[in-house]
């Protein structure tokens, strides 16, 4: 009977040791996570900042490419399956590039106004406005537009996956 009791006591001691070991490992993990949290948070902020800069540059490149009929640059900016609403109708990437290709580059001037950009991981939303001046037959018209652009980080670069704009009526 004494041998049986010693065996039970030995099993209880191993369980207690195992439980204490698990508690110790939990404490160690918690300390590591707490110590690394500021680093991970800082890294995420730096990533958002880098993404913001890259997307702002792409917004500017888009305007420049459109103004100079640069379809090669536009093809890199727009995702192959972009959802684009232009003048109230859905336009494919091919349709958009065809229009830009045949557009007289001297007829339009686009001036960006301040934009707001929010990054959500691998997706970013840009909202803002711009002024478009069109010169035709010796006359010019100025239209102010509001827009929403959606960007996604795919294959190591940001691409425009959705965009829409509407004229602002005074």
What characteristic shape results from the CA principal axes?
elongated
Indicate the mean pLDDT. Answer: 80
Strand order in the sheet with the most strands: 2-1-6-5-4-3
Q: What about the largest sheet?
A: 6 strands, mixed
Q: For this structure, what is the CATH class?
A: Alpha Beta
Task: Give the N-terminus to C-terminus distance in angstroms.
Answer: 97 Å
- If you compute it from the alpha carbons, what radius of gyration comes out, rounded to the nearest whole angstrom? 29 Å
Q: What is the correct CATH architecture?
A: Roll
Total of domains: 1
> Beta-strand percentage?
35-45%
Count of extended strands: 6
Query: What's the CATH topology label?
Result: Nuclear Transport Factor 2, Chain: A
Count of alpha/pi helices: 3
Query: From the helix content, strand content and strand pairing, which structural class follows?
Result: alpha+beta
Name the helix and strand elements from N-terminus to C-terminus, one letter apiece: HHEEHEEEE
Poorly predicted spans: 37-46
Keywords:
alpha+beta, six-stranded mixed sheet, 3 helices, Nuclear Transport Factor 2, Chain: A
